[in-house]
Structures
1.
Amino acid sequence: MIRLSICISTLNRAELLAETLESIGPQLTDEVELLILDGASTDNTQEIIAAFAARCPRLRSVRLDKGEGFDEKYCRLAELAAGEYCWMFADDDLLKPGAVAAVLEATRKDYSLIVVNAEVRSKDLAVCLQPRRINFQQDRTYSPTPSDFDHLLADTAMYLTYIGAIVIKRMLWNQRERQKYFGTIFVHVAVIFQSSLPADALVMAHPWIVIRYGNALWTPRGFEVWMFTFPELVWSFTHFADWAKQRVERREPWRCWHRLLMARAMGHYSGNEYSRWLERRFKSPLEKLFGRTVAAVPIAPLNFLARFLVKWILRKSPSITLYDLERWRGSSASTP
């Protein structure tokens, strides 16, 4: 009887997938299956999967004839899975030794949701940017009561934008509204928070996952995702208290001057983003002037000032914010 299905969607990331599989394979037991959905990769992903399957009888794989969206693929994985629980994992991150055993033990307590903590590292894994994505020193359990559900949202929703943290009962996933959220890349967040959970949720304090930061396929959509898609999703959950949603994200973060300046310093905001997303939303001439002005600020000096602020004034080095700022500098230096 399969208790846990580790579900991975992949597309054209064969080399990274190989590392992910090597971190998972030695931890599999008779209660665990590894399920891979290949979204019509054109690289050697199929060879990597076949080679691993030859020495891992717990692996099942499905290949699509044509690509599907991020949300659709994980919903398809939940339908294909055999386990009582699905661990919706990423194709480029790693599991620490003992991770599967720890999650298996947690599933025996009949939680609706298990949130697996992670440490965050640079793309080459050389630098630890954050030792615990959720800064808990002890496990926490949240009941389905409205008050506890508010706190679950406030404490975890930003982290749960990372799908690899989620271990959820398969039946619960398949019973929830999903199609409404296709295209958001956050169907997993909607599945969890669209209504109260039938049983307790557990947040594991120990970081069992190693996140390879800055490798998301949707990174070019960063301005749209963080200024609009995710905030609008969070504030669409009308059954949560406003304080809980405010803890996760502002209702309209694009109105914050420092958020726009930081987006510009990272190279995520330009005149194109202003024309597409902000021009029609800004009502007053002063707002429009500000939006256009920030989009025209030279990135190099702004990036330097932002890095100086984060590194020497706020003393946050290393950090995810500093890493994002330095990535722009690196990409800029390599551009002819």
2.
Amino acid sequence: MTGVVSITRRGLTIGGAAIAGVVAATSSAKRALAQGGLTERLAYVGCYTPPGEGIVLYRVNADTGAMTQVKVFSGISNPSWIALDPLHRVLYAVNEDEPSGGVSAFAVDHASGDLKLIDKVDSHGKWPCHLSVHPSGKFVLVANYGTGNVSVFPILANGGLGDPTDMESDTGALNPPKAADNPPGNFAPSDHTGPKMHMIQTDPSGQFVIANDAGLDKTLIWTLDLQTGKLTPAATPSVPSTPGSAPRHFAFLPNGRIFYNLHEQDGIVTVADFDPKTGAMKEKQSISVLPKGFGGSNLCSELAVSPDGRFVYAAARGHDAIAELAVGTGGELTWVSEAWSHADYPRSFAIDPAGRFLFACNHKGDALTSFQIDPHSGGLTFTGQFVPVGAPVTMTFLS
């Protein structure tokens, strides 16, 4: 395993000196990567194995979007979703395996981007497909798709993970595998055989933990006790979606008061007002990310808000496209356009921190493709760059 040591089982003291060190290291790395006046960023891509090889490190030109492969960290089983802690000192990855999945923690070298395995723990579920780090840097939140449960892991002093402090699942009646409002000719139903947790993340304030159950068509809401790591259902513990619609990924506007939820099966984004005090959601709009008149099979995947909060982007795997929607004054959306992803099955995408480029992870096309984002219209223009990589799923920026 290149750049990774053997598993040791167990293992961020975040003090003023640590923070200063990280800031200094990051600034040094940025200076070292500046070439000819063009600043470059480091980014990681998590892939399914096989055909992917693990986690791949790239250097990304911030002015052109050009990607150069730096290193492959192989020997990591199915790191299909990755996320950095708030200080970018540790990278966490799910190991989307069965019968039991895992979660791996890697120490990050800011200058080189190298990863060194700290530990790997059981995810306490099957097929963990998503994770995120609480803004406090104290916990990693994991969504286990196969067993329909979520796990909360405390982050230890060295960035490793302790035993889970809580695990929660969902119950309820089964829904049909297709939504009543799905496009005509849609022969790609979502899995509704039981609870299927597909995403878990906090609201921007970190007060509420939110998870999408694509199998039972619900969005679950908890509060998290930062001392005990226990989840408690919020005053409104869940919000139902259209039966069969499969809520998959969600995002907030930067103000934390508008919640967007993308539904895999029918291609609908719902827009809701979010109460940052109670966690309550009040839906006010439902809009398709598919072009007018679309017919055929499609399974939507990823949703993201531009850094400036002016646009929402959504990936549609069935016809290999990224839709652009403009954000109105009240957070409502208007469909603007879509761009062909230029490769098969965009499972997710990432927007660079400056909001200048969007990078599509084309899972079945075994390629990353990049698009320049128009600063005025938000439109996507293909850069002409194809980066071959086996089964890319997710991408995150280090610098």
3.
Amino acid sequence: MRRVSIVTPPAIEPVTVADARLALGQSAGADAPVLALHLLAARELAEAFTGRAFITTTFLMVLDEFPGMPADVWWDGVRDGVLPERQASIMLPRPPVQSVTSITYTDSASVTQTVTATDYYLAGDRVMLMPGRSWPAGARRGTVSVTFVSGYGASPDHVPAGIRAGILAHVRDVIERPNAGISSERIDNASVTYGAIRTGAAAGTGINEAGGLRGGAAALLRPYCVLRSGFA
């Protein structure tokens, strides 16, 4: 089991208020905080939908224990060592991962220890052991902590255009059609208001398959969704 939290949030949004105003054809006004809130909410939805971090963010992942070698490993490679996918590696969420800051744990004497950085290396979104190294033994359960940095970069220009367009599409729909998907009808003496949920791949913008994204944002963001292998 793993628990992931944000240590240092992004310093800037992938789509700035100025960029959003330009795209929406708006002029500067007092509603900037509201627009900024929409952009923040859209980014959080988009990151949850894709499983990625967009702007540089520091995360903390806490594991129950260090990973062990899968029980069904039989191939020793002779020349190249164990298949990387089957090594006792740590899979990091929210790619693209930029770096690993530290890996710590609490030992049997309740002392916090730091894994030597030269014992492991980062390969994509996996922390791999160097040849001949192993994870420390005796770590108390629930104390293995990995601090790492993810995101495309510190500037909106580093974020793929498709992601930024998806965020804008959602915000545009929220602003221009605030009541989209909300229906109301009168039953006897009562007025009932409810949200419509559309399902099925053909709909494309239904809540069930779009993670709450609107305005075709899901279609723009889907190519960036993280696909995990069976070795995750």
